[in-house]
Amino acid sequence: MKTAIGVGLTTDENWDEFSDYVIEAERMGVDSVWSAEAWGHDGATPLAYLAAKTSRIRLGSGILQTVGRTPANLAMTAMTLQSMSGGRFLLGLGVSGPQVVEGWHGVRYTRPIKRLAETIAVVRLLSSGEKSQYEGEIIRLPLPGGEGKAIRSRAKPQPNIPIYLATLSPNSLELTGEVADGWLGTSFMPEHADVFFEHIRRGTQKAGRSMNEIDIAVGGAVGFSDDINRLLARHRPGIAFTLGAMGSKRHNFYNAAFRRAGYDEEAIAVQNRWLEGDREGAASLVPDELVLQTNLLGTEDMVRERIRRYRDAGVTTLRLQPDGRTLNERLETLGRAVALVNEVTAEAKVA
C-alpha cells in the first residue's frame, strides 16, 4: 500500500513551509502529493512549483474542476506539468457541485457526469498528439458553424497521463470504473467500502476491465494520542462541516454517501442543525463511530489496526492528513504513520 498527502493553502500563504512539507514527505517515501482546488488558489500552479523542488514524489491535482476550464485547456495544463515534472504528474478531475459551479464559475450545473466523460476523452485525445476532432453530445471540436479547424498540439505529446476521478454518486462512481486510472475517494469507511466499490466494479465490468487496474486512493486524518475523547472533539466539527456545508440541502454528495453507508438519520440531523446555523450543535450530533471510521486516530495500536482495515478493504494508496499545529508536529505524525503503513504492507507480503 502506497502513501499520499494533500496540500493546499488558504490565508496562510507560506510557500516555503508548503514546499518544506512536501520535500520531507518525499524523503520519508511518500508516493504522491495532491494539490487541492476549491475557490482560492488553483490546483495546478502549486504543482509546477513543487516539480522544481522535488525529484521523485508524484504530483497530483486533487482535483481540477472541469467546469472551470475547457477540455483543451485541461490537456495543455496536464501536458505542461507532465513535461515539467519528468513524467510525475497525475491528473485528478472532478465536477464539484452546483453551489461552486454556479456560484463561483457562473456555469449551469447540467449533465455533469456526461460532460466529465467527454472531457476525459478530449484530454486523452489531445495529449496523445491527435487533432482536435471530437463529436460528443456536449463537446464538439471544432465548433460547428464557425471558422475553427482541427488543430494538433504544438507541444510534445504526453500520452497515457494517469487520470484520477473524485466521484461520490453511483453514476459517477460507475464512470470511474469505466475510464479512470484511479479513484480519489472521500466520505470513505473501510467497513462500508462496497457503498462505493459496488458501483466502481459495475463500471469496470461494463468496460471489460478489472478493479486491479484502478488505484484506490482514500484515507483520512491521522492523530496519535491516548486521549481518544480529545481526538474525537478535534475532528467532529470537520465531519459536521462535510455533512452540513459541502453542498446545498438538495445536493450534498458527501452527505448522501454517508446516508448510503447506513447513517441516514445521523447525516440528515447534522445537516439540518448546520443549516439552521447551529454549528456546535451539528458537531455534537456526529457519532463517535463516524469520526473513528473515517480517520486513523488513537494509540499506535489503534492506528495500525485502522491501516489494516484500509488494506483489507482493497485500498492501494492511503491518503494521510497528519494532525499538528506546526510543521514539525505534522511531519512527526506523518513519519509515524508512514512507518506503520510500511509495517502493515510488509505483513501482507509475508502472509
Description of the structure:
The protein folds into two domains: 2-224 and 296-350, Luciferase-like domain (TIM Barrel, Alpha-Beta Barrel), CATH 3.20.20; 226-295, no CATH class. Helix content is 49%, strand content 15%. It is built from 14 helices and twelve strands. The chain has helices at 15-28, 45-53, 71-84, 98-103, 112-127, 170-179, 194-207, 228-245, 253-260, 264-275, 279-284, 288-293, 300-313, 327-350, and strands spanning 2-7, 32-35, 58-61, 64-65, 89-94, 134-135, 140-141, 163-165, 182-184, 215-224, 296-298, 317-322. Helix 6 (170-179) links the parallel strand 8 (163-165) and strand 9 (182-184). The chain is globular, with a radius of gyration of 20 Å.
Describe how the helices and strands are arranged.
Blueprint: E1 2-7, H1 15-28, E2 32-35, H2 45-53, E3 58-61, E4 64-65, H3 71-84, E5 89-94, H4 98-103, H5 112-127, E6 134-135, E7 140-141, E8 163-165, H6 170-179, E9 182-184, H7 194-207, E10 215-224, H8 228-245, H9 253-260, H10 264-275, H11 279-284, H12 288-293, E11 296-298, H13 300-313, E12 317-322, H14 327-350
Parallel strand pairs: 1-2, 1-12, 2-3, 3-5, 4-5, 5-8, 8-9, 9-10, 10-11, 10-12
Antiparallel strand pairs: 6-7
Helix fraction? Answer: 40-55%
Number of strands: 12
Q: How far apart lie the N and C ends? A: 14 Å
Question: How confident overall, as mean pLDDT?
Answer: 96
CATH topology of the largest domain: TIM Barrel
Q: What is the gyration radius calculated from CA atoms?
A: 20 Å
- Give the SSE string: EHEHEEHEHHEEEHEHEHHHHHEHEH
CATH architecture of the largest domain: Alpha-Beta Barrel
Distinct helical segment count: 14
- Outline, from the CA principal axes? globular
Spatial strand sequence of the major β-sheet: 1-2-3-5-8-9-10-12
